[in-house]
UniProtKB/TrEMBL annotation:
Annotated Gene Ontology cellular component terms: plasma membrane
Protein location: Cell membrane
Source species: Sutterella wadsworthensis HGA0223
Predominant location category: membrane
InterPro entries associated with the record: Preprotein_translocase_YajC
Protein's name in the database: Sec translocon accessory complex subunit YajC
Topology relative to the membrane: Single-pass membrane protein
GO aspect biological process, one term: protein transport
Keyword vocabulary terms for this entry: Cell membrane, Membrane, Protein transport, Translocation, Transmembrane, Transmembrane helix, Transport
Family: Belongs to the YajC family.
Biological classification of the source: Bacteria, Pseudomonadati, Pseudomonadota, Betaproteobacteria, Burkholderiales
Transmembrane segments: 23-42
Length: 115
């Protein structure tokens, strides 16, 4: 008790040494959580988006497709952003709708769509 200032300095040094350790204990779990989210959520979503964009770029006349709305049909013509999709035939005349290429969910095997 003769030197209370030296006791206070010693306590301050111990607290500052533990400060870096407590900082790491707080930051490391956040980094781990971010890495887990990236690996299991963000990365697979980016991969699906790339595959969908590649599929949409490869669409051609005559492909049979299903849209995200559940409409299936045969592609009659394709532009840069849109396509004409034959969805039915009424009295021998084709029923054609125009939609965006990105609305295609999947390409169906040939012969899947019957009119």
């Amino acid at each position: 008790m003769l030197f209370p200032i030296s006791d206070a300095l010693a306590a301050g040094e111990a607290a500052s040494a533990g400060g870096m350790e407590s900082f790491l204990v707080q930051v490391v779990p956040l980094i781990v959580i971010f890495v887990v989210f990236w690996f299991f959520l963000i990365r697979p979503q980016q991969k699906r988006q790339k595959e969908h964009a590649k599929m949409c770029d490869a669409l051609a006349k005559g492909d049979e497709v299903m849209t995200m709305g559940g409409i299936s049909g045969r592609i009659e013509s394709v532009d840069e952003q849109s396509m004409a999709l034959q969805v039915a035939s009424v009295d021998g005349k084709p029923v054609v709708i125009r939609m965006q290429r990105s609305a295609v969910q999947m390409v169906l095997p040939k012969g899947s769509v019957k009119f």
